[in-house]
Amino acid sequence: MPWAEIGQHGLALVVYPGLLAGCAVGLLLEIAAAWALVPGRGGLVPTARRVLLVLRPRRGGFPLYSALAGLLALVAASQLAAPFNPVPASDRNLLVAGIALIGSGWILWTWGWNREEVDPRLLLVVQLCWMVALLVPAIEPQTLKPQTLANIQLNPGLPLKVACGLLYLMCLPALLNLIPESAPQGVPGGAGRRAAGAEGAGFGALRLLLWLPYCGLFASLFFPPGGDDLVDLLRYLGLVAGTAAIAVAIALNLIVRGAAFTHRFVTLVVVPVAWITLGLGMLTAAIGTR
User: Which residue among 54, 96, 209, 238 is least crowded, i.e. fewest CB within 10 A of its CB?
Assistant: First the structure.
């Protein structure tokens, strides 16, 4: 790989849309989510203080494996069809983003595996459904490039694109750790399931880095990419914020209704929609080959 391409990928990982951009966007969305999910614990300023307090590294720093999970999240962010992304469009790949986010998510959830605080079965089902929403749009055009898929005008396959978008949004609360079943250290803004420490700081920092990859990937897949100018950048960030707002709204509804409702929602709504989406993808591909 030429040094110029190495520099482009490094810039994407460290600056934008990687570490610096991910921290800035993630911090804003984490504070907004904490304020929305736990409204009884004060306004925006107290909420921001709680979020920053959890993120503050304790003695010993973050757990070692949180660094690997964070790196995977940054790799996924580099695949976004975001304005000014230094990674060439030809080098971005949905499969890379999907594998990186799955790996990062499972490393994050290991904080609760031995404490019966997460539901591995529910998380696995949600991740499989999310992969359907992520990869099914690539069946008929046979491409894994996010910016190419977003530009495709699916006239006969419009129902497929809508179904994939809805399925993606329904999976986000669990993937972003906004519900108790997928958040070992508790939902944003909550009191937490144990005293904050290095473990809690590592969990909070990693969740913060997942906001931009997940929400940005949705915007990259289902909305046509713009050019490299300020207006298109603001439009893209608006789409990311809107996606996050929908995820928080779904999560709030699930939290209020309880764990039993969350399991029914995944079993009776998310899974059937995933099967329908997969069927629509196969039908669209069959029609496209004629």
Answer: 238
